[in-house]
Amino acid sequence: MSKRTILVTGAGGQLARSIAALVEPFHTYVFHFVTKEELSIVDAEGVQNYFSDNQPAFCINCAAYTAVDKAESAVEEAFHINADGVKTLAQICAAFDTKFIHISTDYVFSGTSARPYREDDKVDPINVYGQSKAKGEENALSCNPQAVIIRTSWVYSEYGRNFLTTMIKLMTEKRELNVVDDQVGAPTYAADLAGVILRMINFSLWKPGVYHYCNDGRITWYDFAQAIRDNLNAACILHPISTSDYPTPAKRPKFSLLDTAKIRREFDLDIPFWKDSLTKCMGNIQGQ
User: Fold this and answer.
1) What is the largest CA-CA distance in the chain?
2) Domains in the chain, start-ordered, CATH in brackets?
3) Which of 59, 119, 207, 277 makes an SS bond possible with 7, Cβ 3.0 to 4.6 Å?
4) CA geometry: angle at 194 spanning 125 and 122, to 5°?
């Protein structure tokens, strides 16, 4: 029996790298991790040729334009990647009967909810990045009704630049830091999300639709920073500030907690508590 191919786009990003770290036990698949230089999702001809040559059984789209503030002035580029590129992938996956998993974001919501956002809540993004990702979701589902979309939030990992790695660097360099304390959500350890994606692929049934995934719990960025500092045993003093004290080009949702009941139920998941996953990730960093 020939091994089935799994295409993972955005190979340089933290989620794709987290998936790569977990693939060893999946012996019935061949994983192809491609960077944007190797396969750009906005290059329809290149994507078509890749699918013709490799016939992937699954495509996990980790490629995205993620510079939230820069997107405010780079609207065309953000939409080209996050909306047009997703449309290209969704259409070609449908044509080749490739199961498509697309990663989206809590930023498709306005942040005005009084309860965790559910999958069927209305999207209402308040910045260009969120608008481009919302359009990508729309394109994915209209072009490929069998697609899976996973919305996630506050993703961090051992790899690259993210809130955790930035905080570790700053806490070793600075005596004091200001951290926003009025944006509520839950962090997502990329390795946990990677494990869920692989579980979906290996699951007995393909279950298309929109899902929410983040670690268990409810915190602010300040709470997150405190936990990082405590884990580091750093002497850095943290000051809670409001969003208005830290103006950025792009507005951020004040509340972006995601309701994960659906993904727990459909895939029989136990989702780790955020602090446990943070401890695990920081242990990996400190052990490197």
Assistant:
1) 60
2) 4-162+187-217+257-277 (3.40.50.720)
3) 59
4) 20
